[in-house]
Each structure stands twice: as C-alpha cells, then as structure tokens.
Design goal:
The protein is of the alpha/beta class. It has one domain (2-158, 185-217, 256-272): Rossmann fold, CATH 3.40.50. It is built from nine helices and twelve strands.
C-alpha cells in the first residue's frame, strides 16, 4: 500500500518515520513544507494520483495554541482548509484519510472522560479550527478516521516534557498548573496504533469513524512535571499553581480526559499507562 504522511517533521510524523523500516510491505511518502502544502488542492491531488496513494495520514496542523488567538487566518487555513483539501483529494483518489485532531474541541466542563459523540465546544481559535477541520472531513471524505489525541509529546520537536527537562536543569524551582487534568500521549504509542490500524483495516471498505487515543491514566501538568524531575533525578522543585496564576491568551480545558474504549475494542489495541510511556521516552533522553 502507498501511504502519504503529511506534517512528517512534526512529533507524530517523526515517530511514524521511525516505524517505516518495520513495515516494509508498504511504500511510505513522508512530506512536509515546503515539499507539500496541504492547502494547495492541485498540488496534493497531483502528488497522490501520481503515486497511487491509498492512505493519507494527516499529521500536519497549526498547533501554536496561544499564537492562534491572533494568527487566526493561518490557523484556519491549515487546520480547516488544509483538512478540507485532503478530504477532497481522498475522495478523488479513493483513499482512506486518517486525520489527527485534538482534545481541545471540548471545553473541559465534563466530569467523566469524553466520548467521541460528546458535544464539541472549543474554547479558543485552535480548538475551533480543528473542530471545523473535522466537520469538513466528515462532509467530504467518504472514507475517513478522525483520531483525537491529547497532551502529545515526543523526543522530537518542542513539547512540555522537553521544556520541563530544560527548566529542571536550569532552575531551582518551577511552578506548574495542577488544576488541568488530562492524559499525556507519547507520540510513539500513537504512531504504533496508527500503523496497526493501517495494517488491519480492510482495503476498499468505507470507514466513517471518530476515535479517541491517549495513554491511559489521569494526571495534571503538575503530576507530569514531578514525574519528569523524579525520573531524571533533577533537583528542581515543582510547585503547584492554579491556571489563574499562569494566564495564557487561549483558555485551556480544565478536564480533557478522553475515553479510549471505542478505538481499543475496534482495533484490539493495548494502550500503555502514561507513566510507563513517559519513562520509556525519558530513557531515550541523554
């Protein structure tokens, strides 16, 4: 099968590339800007037709949550229009579109893990642009899977874990919010799940599904920061603070735990606990 991965230099795209060698039955095409612009319909369709792409994995996204509040046009151009372009191309090429979305489509007011059919109510531009991208895919791509994830991190790129590693070696103490609950997701685990789905899906079958995927367990950013310092033996003290003490341009959901039952049962996945996956990722960091 010929597979296109967009946003290939991001956290998830980079982890998928590391799995390429283990799945030699497929031909993988990893593309990012400037080689492939997902907002250019003609460019993307030509690319996919020339290579007979059967699966598109869209890891490309505008993910600067706070900057999106002022860079609105760019956020929607990438997250909504780019998703719509890929959906149109997938339809034209009879390809399956696997699209990565976010827990930020929810407002965090739930008191139980979010299911796929819960009402979306984004708090900011980033979440709204991702939600509208999801809707564009549902309306256009006959065969698609939307996978929402949360608190993504990897050894690649910039993320909260790597920031804590840096601050832990530079400072004596750091304040981290304790009133935002969720589940971290190691991009390597999500990449493995995506490859499993590609391997197990029935070629030619029409899929119209939304799934949730994150690592198991629930924690706060404060808990994650403490786990990083403890695992690496860093003397930096972590102090719990409220979100109000660390104001940001975009509001964050206070509770964005995702219910993974649907994807786990549909594809027979074993989803690791966040602490186990964090320890594995940290073991790779020197």
């Amino acid at each position: 099968m010929n597979i296109l991965v967009t946003g290939s230099r991001g956290q998830l795209g980079s982890e998928l590339k590391e799995l390429e060698a283990r799945h030699i039955g497929h031909t993988w095409y990893f593309r990012d800007l400037p080689e492939l612009d997902i907002t250019s319909s003609a460019h993307v369709e030509s690319f996919c037709r020339d290579r007979a792409i059967g699966v598109i994995v869209n890891c490309a996204a505008y993910t600067a949550v706070d900057r999106a509040e002022t860079d609105v046009d760019t956020a929607f151009r990438v997250n909504r229009h780019g998703a719509a372009v890929l959906a149109s191309v997938a339809k034209a090429c009879d390809a399956l579109l696997l699209h990565i979305s976010t827990d930020y489509v929810f407002d965090g007011s739930n008191c139980r893990p979010y299911r796929e059919d819960d009402l979306a109510s984004p708090l900011g531009v980033y979440g709204q642009s991702k939600w509208e991208g999801e809707e564009a895919i549902r309306k256009t791509a006959p065969s698609h899977m939307i996978i929402r994830t949360s608190w993504l991190y990897s050894i690649h790129g910039q993320n909260f874990i790597k920031t804590m590693l840096r601050l832990g070696s530079e400072r004596e103490s750091v304040g981290v919010v304790f009133d935002q609950a969720g589940s971290p997701t190691w991009a390597a685990d999500l990449a493995a799940a995506i490859v499993t789905i590609i391997d197990r899906h029935n070629i030619g079958q029409i899929y119209a599904e939304t799934y949730h995927y994150s690592n198991e367990g629930v924690c706060s950013w404060y808990d994650v920061a403490r786990a990083v310092m403890d695992a690496k033996g860093l003397p930096c003290r972590v102090h719990p603070i409220e979100s109000a003490d660390y104001p940001t341009p975009s509001k964050r959901p206070h509770y964005s735990v995702l219910n993974k039952k649907k994807i786990r049962e549909a594809w027979n996945l074993e989803i690791p606990h966040w602490q186990d996956s964090l320890d594995k990722m940290l073991a790779r960091c020197q």
